[in-house]
Amino acid sequence: MIEGHGDDTYRYGHIRLNFSSNIPAYTDLSGLEAHLSRHLSLIRNYPEPSPRSLEAKIAHSIGRNPSQVLVTSGATEAIYLIAQSARTLFPGEGGPTYTVVQPTFSEYESACQMFGLREGADGDICWLCNPNNPTGEVRDEAYVRRLLRHHRLLVIDQSYEDYTQSPLPDLGDLTNVVVLHSMTKRYCIPGLRLGYVTGAPEVIEVLRHCGRPWSVNALAQEAGAWLVEHSPRLLDIGAYLREAQRLRKALNSIPGIEVAPTQTNFMLATIRPRTAAELKAYLAEEHGILIRDASNFRGLSAHHFRVAAQRPEDDDVLVGAIRQYMA
Amino acid sequence: MIEGHGDDTYRYGHIRLNFSSNIPAYTDLSGLEAHLSRHLSLIRNYPEPSPRSLEAKIAHSIGRNPSQVLVTSGATEAIYLIAQSARTLFPGEGGPTYTVVQPTFSEYESACQMFGLREGADGDICWLCNPNNPTGEVRDEAYVRRLLRHHRLLVIDQSYEDYTQSPLPDLGDLTNVVVLHSMTKRYCIPGLRLGYVTGAPEVIEVLRHCGRPWSVNALAQEAGAWLVEHSPRLLDIGAYLREAQRLRKALNSIPGIEVAPTQTNFMLATIRPRTAAELKAYLAEEHGILIRDASNFRGLSAHHFRVAAQRPEDDDVLVGAIRQYMA
Hints:
Two copies of one chain form a homodimer.
Chain A: E1 17-18, H1 30-38, H2 52-61, E2 69-72, H3 74-89, E3 97-100, H4 107-114, E4 118-119, E5 125-129, H5 141-150, E6 153-157, E7 177-182, H6 183-186, E8 195-198, H7 201-210, H8 218-230, H9 237-252, E9 257-259, E10 266-271, H10 276-287, E11 289-290, E12 292-293, E13 304-308, H11 312-326
Parallel strand pairs in A: 1-11, 3-4, 3-5, 5-6, 6-7
Antiparallel strand pairs in A: 2-8, 7-8, 9-10, 10-13, 12-13
Helix pairs in contact in A: 2-8, 3-4, 3-7, 9-11
């Protein structure tokens, strides 16, 4: 794994505004926190080795069968399980191959390399992040159906599905597609590690078989059950996405900063002539602001950085600080 | 993984006494729970992808270098990382082989099989649980040094190291030994999933490289830091182990029950002529008591069960209930 992911607040003692992870930092999680504080004694008992009860609850809430749902310790565990399962899913000489639609989240490639898969243009497995991290782009159904012609399994990471109003591909129940979902992103709880995979029972069964017991801890399982039951509305998504577009426009108005179009709550930008690393260090040290240096995404440069929209007043602070740096 | 581990309280709605997992269920965790309840907002941020801060704290507390410590999501993650790393540690024709000192915890074998390792008498990797689950036996240094002559890497799972007064082997800093430690067991927090591996930096580095980011969630990392700092004394181990011997003697006095000698807090017993599954069902349904049906440990029979000592008054309830069943 690379060590340079976003949300490295733990490296700094004084971050007051965090634009570095792709979630709104200001949502009201008091209901969930109150529930967890009443259930802390769960740390005394083993969780379910395989979180079947939560899988049944999630399956019911999305109108699927529990055999089509696998709960994981964040979408990241799902990524590694899929890479690990590749040899079982696609046995044969030489081992399975993979393709990643770049630039995107680095863990697809890290996971495939860890399990010795080979990269290729028409790989057995194709990884697509949709909406895409870090570009904010949403691919439509036609694009995805074209991909399906070239690959034996399409993995669509829909971690950001709740942060777009662009239509996501509706692929029905295709047996050669698995979809990753992130409760981390949906409910703004990256500290807990919780996600799930949906797919055909025969693929889910292979992934389940590659899992190890107790990978999802008791508090994450309890939080998941509460969230499925209460389904809290944490924000007005329309207003939030409008704020993201306002932030994009404001950043774009700064000479030397260029922000790519986005269909979600985060955006990819370039800074010139200085580097993203320099900007990041300045913002952290001088303003207590954290952004994502995006230079370690494959295909991007030292000039790329990523920010996620926050509250209007917070976004104004970011814009002001970057404007000051560029002046 | 097998689905029949101990502590399956989640299958029952009415368990009042749990003898099925190898930890005392009555310890006072209020200090840790209070600390976590004050830090629930940690769920909002990503944890460290690799828990380096906690590794440094643990290393300092045990007088090791951080390069000799790997924090994992319970000892179970460590077991799977070791099996996954075997091909890197022992490359070559045919792949690595493994040996398990049986009967013992089933996950060593499950993990090796998952990663395609082959079983053999003088395997490259040898797995030893010490004190051993489920027998309660402690192997001495001479035994372990004999094992070292036959294997290239010895994995000693010392999850129960805090629950014995028998001396454990002191192997110094051998490069062909890794030791698994369980904060789950030491601090009675199986719901959080927290453990660590100690070993030579070159082996730890390979294991670290096989890990995925964020496998230890934010609350588990925070709990670990608090526990290392405060090192709470949760029980009088001498009194607890004396109680285990008293429980053993009391169970042994029941006709049809035979309990093997133990050097720790849990013990392996047989019931005849009926089966452990029948006894377990009776105790759960009639008494709200949970025991571990040990029939799925390799080499054991349908008549084996395991219990861990609890408080004297709780142990008396267990003895009374089993006596009633056998009458």
